[in-house]
Amino acid sequence: MSEYDTVSADVQHEEEIPEDHPRYQDLITRHRIENGVEKGITHLQGMHAEGRGSAFDYLLGEETIPSADAAERAAAAHLLLAEKPVLSINGNVAALVPGEMVELADAVDADLEVNLFNRTPERIEAIADHLREHGAEDVKGLTADARIPNLDHQRAKVDADGIYAADVVVVPLEDGDRAEALQEMEKTEIVIDLNPLSRSPQVAEIPIVDNIIRAVPNMTAHAEELATASEAELRTIIEEFDREHALAAAEERIRNGV
Ligand code: PTJ
Fold first, then answer.
1. Do the beta carbons of residue 59 and residue 84 sit within 8 Å?
2. Is the distance from the beta carbon of residue 46 to the nearest atom of ligand 1 less than 6 Å?
3. Which among 55, 77, 146, 227 is placed 20 to 30 Å from 70, CA to CA?
4. How far apart are CA 44 and CA 226, in angstroms?
C-alpha cells in the first residue's frame, strides 16, 4: 500500500490532501467542486463539467503550455485597456477560484458578475455571498435588468450596467451559445476552457486553454507586471497574440502530446 492510499476519499478540508501527492491539483479541484455542491454554489452538472475538464488537463500535462501563457498575457493586456471589463462567474468558477477572481478584478479594475445556466435566486445569492466572503465589495448579476439578444435561456439575464454594457468580458468554463451571442454584441471575449474544440474558445478573441486554477493567478501576475506599460505596448502584446496558433497548439498537445 502506498502512502497516498491513506488520502481519504472523503476529505473534509483541502489541507488534508498532501501537496506532494501526484494528483494533488486534481484532488484539490474535485474537493472544491464537491464543497461547492454541498454549499449550494455549484450545480450538480458542474461535476460533469469538472470531469471533462480534468480529462483534458491530464492530456495537456496539467501545466500552462506556452501558447496559454501568451493568451493569459494578451488577456491581461485587453483587460487593462478595457473601458468596462467584467468577469463572469458561474457555480464552478465560484467554487474553484473565488479569491483569485477577486484579485484579478482588483488588478484590472473589473466588475464581477454572477451569470448562471441553472439560475435560481438561492444560487445567485449563495455565490454572491461566497464572493463577498473572499473579499468582493460589489457583485453584479442580482439585478438582471437587461437581456443578451438572441439567447433564450437563463444565461441571457445580465445587469444593464454589467455584462450588458461591458466592452471586454471574461467567460470561463461554459460551452455554449452565450459566447456566440456576446460576439454578436461585439464584445471582446476572453474564454477560459480546457477543451480547445468547445464552441466558446472557438469564437473567443482570446481563447485560454488552461485550467482556471492556473490561468487566473497567471493573468493577475501578467496584469500586475503590465500595470505601468504604455497603451502602445499593450496593443503590441494583443496584436502579436495568434488565436489560431493557440487553439492549434493546445489541440496538438492534447492529441499527440507535442
Ligand atoms: O453554474 P451554472 O449553472 O452556470 O452551470 C455551469 C456549468 C459548468 C455546469 C455549465 O456551464 C456547463 O454545463 O458547462 P459545460 O458545457 O460542461 O462546459 C464547461 C467547459 O469547461 C468544458 O469544456 C470543460 O472542459 C471546461 N472545464 C471544466 N473544468 C475546467 C474547465 N476549463 C478550465 N478549467 C477547469 N477547471
1. no
2. yes
3. 55
4. 38
Q: Determine the distance separating the centroid of ligand 1 and the alpha carbon of 234, expressed in angstroms.
A: 29
pLDDT digits (tens, 9 = 90+) for 57-75: 999 999 999 999 999 999 9
**What separation in angstroms does the CA of 86 have from each of 29, 169, 219?**
24, 5, 14
Q: Is 88 in the pocket of ligand 1 (CB under 6 A)?
A: no
CA distances for 128 relative to 13, 133, 186, angstroms: 22, 9, 27
User: What confidence tens digit (pLDDT) does each residue in 160-204 have?
Assistant: 999 999 999 999 999 888 999 999 999 999 999 999 999 999 999
* Strand stretches in the chain, DSSP E: 85-89, 111-114, 139-140, 146-147, 157-158, 168-172, 188-192, 206-208
The answer, yes or no, to whether any atom of ligand 1 lies below 6 A from the CB of 132, is no
